[in-house]
Amino acid sequence: MQAVFAIVYREYLIRLTSPLWLFFDLVVPLMYLLMFGVGLDRAIGLGIALEGRAVSYNEFFLAGVLSMSCFGSAINQSYGFFVDRDNGIFYEFLTYPMTRGQFLVGKILFQCLMSIVQAALTLSCAVWVLEIQLMWEFLLPLIAGVVIGIAAWFFFLAIFAFRIRRNDTFNTVINVAYFVLMFVSSMFYPLDSVPSWLRTLAMGNPLTWHTDVLRYFTIGLGDPQVIFWEIAGFGLFLIMSFWVAVKSLQKAV
Amino acid sequence: MADLAIEVKDLIKFYEKRGQPPVRAVQGVSFSVRKGEIFGLLGPNGAGKTTTLKILTTLLLPTSGFVRVMGFDVATQSLEVRKNICVVVQDNAIELYLSVRNNFRTFGRFHGLTLKEVEQRMGRISELFGLKEHLNAKGVDLSGGLKRRVQVAKMFLIDKPIVFLDEATTGMDTFNKRSTIAAIKEEATKGRTIVLTTHLLDEAEELCDSLVIINHGRVIASGSTDQVKAMGLKMMYVWLDFEKLGKKTVQSIKKWKPVKLEIKGASVELTVKDEKAALAVVIAARKTGMLRNFEIMNATLEDVFVEIVDKKQEAA
Q1: What is the extent of the structural domain holding A207?
Q2: Phi/psi of residue B4, each to 5°?
Q3: pLDDT in tens, B71-119
């Protein structure tokens, strides 16, 4: 554990060197919710009819904002491997007394702690500014969902960061993946209203599973049985991504 | 075996790329390093020394062979190996956005030191490497030489039994090179094992108790520094100083097929195959009537190195 905490300490020191970075890291999801969400909420007006209840777009989009910020933070953190490679420190890290798994967990642990603060700010804004009724009894699973989400996406993206040596290629791949994964998911719109081919694709997207689970824990929307399977699927996605990332890291030199 | 810090037997490493024949970087290398020894891994560029070092430091897995560091297998006990080593990699490795002080702190934390312990050791280390006035400077603001100094200094902050230095003094000025060499020697007297790769043979000659010369992924010479030098024991270094150096004189010297020949103004430095050739060169030089001074001595490790590598290449 000493090595894991050493990485957290290192990430903390680096983050302290740029308060602006720290600020944007925390408030970007808020900006999405307040600008994009509120704008669409006004445009849609009466809201979305789902499972026999009318849900405002703000309520619907809250889980999308949380899952989007998990994905965004994971991208930033995985891009850090390229910065470490350019600084030469990446290879030195791999000679430190820790396993490859500990290295990966340490790299994301600080960001997970940040994401808890990020989620707390976003949820506070949702409750007090946008007057969204949160399912408070699900607060702990919701926080766990955010932390697990950011870890899973980080491990998944780390696989590409280790296998792709050029950061411009990595950026292109991630931009395409970001676009496809976000729009072929339940992040921005309910899947009931999309064409069946798109719904089928979206149902196999881990971002849909993650967003649906967060939506269930924020506003209670979703079938518990489906949510159970989505949790199981996302858990499997986390384990598989971690395993492949460790294997890729072992071959990253 | 208990006194061995490193054992390498029949080490083979192939790099495989899809659709291409495998690159044979290391082909059956064997050597051992005793505890407390300064050991040199020498060879020309692309010889396989960095690949060997990467395997020893658990960055790469061997294709086959047996490699133990402090008794631990690099392939199956890599974490235990990493607990016993610290490594200066070939590239500059420094946290660019952290101060030198915080570079020391993070490195110390990774190796189990408390912040208090780091502060205590930082004073001595920063003094030794002339980094005291740079402690608050960020890595990004340091020159290449200073970055390298920080990187090497970090290794002396902790007490791991084995230190690997890959071209550690590259980019350093003479003063820091001297400090680093002195620090390496001091650490070795404390019982630490130092493994270094270098292309600076005078550095290897000054530091190493034993060494291995690798070329094309194979060991071409090994033993104590004196033993390796003895492989070229007959080789002699000759220094000739003339009042005036003419073309004819240079041509007459070249007749003796020197291994190395360097002309600096009116002086000539050359290495010849044996004592007989050295004497013949001096006699020829005297006959010109222009010879002011001369000196004959044993060849340096560099001369031996060049000779051994050349011979093996010719044979190949």
Answers
A1: 2-250
A2: -95, 130
A3: 999 999 999 999 999 998 888 889 999 999 999 999 999 999 999 999 9
Closest residue on chain A to B88 (Cα): A92
Domain ranges of chain B: 4-230, 236-298
Give dist(CA B311, CA A73) in Å, integer. Answer: 57
**A6 Cβ under 8 Å from any chain B Cβ:** yes
State how far the Cα of B66 lies from the Cα of B8, in Å rounded to an integer. 6
Residues of B in contact with A9 (CB under 8 A): 105-106, 109
Contact map slice: A 78-117 vs B, CB within 8 A: 87-89, 91-92, 94-99
Q: How many domains does chain A have?
A: 1
Per the document, the length of chain B is: 316
Judge contact between B164 and B88, C-beta under 8 A.
Answer: yes
- Domain B4-230: which CATH class? alpha beta
Q: Which residues of B touch A17 (CB under 8 A)?
A: 97-98, 138
How would you write A192-233 as a 3-class SS string? Answer: HHCCHHHHHHHHCCHHHHHHHHHHHHHHCCCCHHHHHHHHHH
Q: Long-range contacts: B112-116, Cβ < 8 Å, 24+?
A: B112/A2, B112/A97, B113/B157, B113/B158
Count of alpha carbons within 13 Å of B273, Cβ hemisphere only?
Answer: 6
Among B59, B85, B138, the residue with its CB nearest the CB of A91 is: B59
pLDDT value at residue B313? 65
Cβ count within 10 A of residue A63: 25
Residue A115: partners with Cβ closer than 8 Å, 6 or more residues away: A69, A70, A73, A146, A147, A150
What ipTM, to 2 d.p.? 0.84
CATH architecture of B236-298: 2-Layer Sandwich (3.30)
- Backbone phi, psi, residue A45, to 5°: 75, -90
Q: Does residue B94 belong to the interface with chain A, where contact is any CB pair within 8 Å?
A: yes
Distance of residue A122 Cα from the nearest chain B Cα, in angstroms: 29
d(CA A91, CA A10): 16
Note whether A225 contacts B: Cβ–Cβ < 8 A: no
> 3-class SS at B41?
strand
Of A70, A58, A57, residue with least CA distance to A29: A70
pTM of the model: 0.82
| Alpha carbon of residue A153 to chain centroid | 6
CB contact under 8 A, B106 and A3: no
Contact A10 B109 (CB under 8 A): yes
Nearest to B204 by CA among B231, B169, B171: B169
Q: Is A89–B58 a contact, with Cβ atoms under 8 angstroms apart?
A: no
Q: Tokens at residue B148, please? A: 């390298």
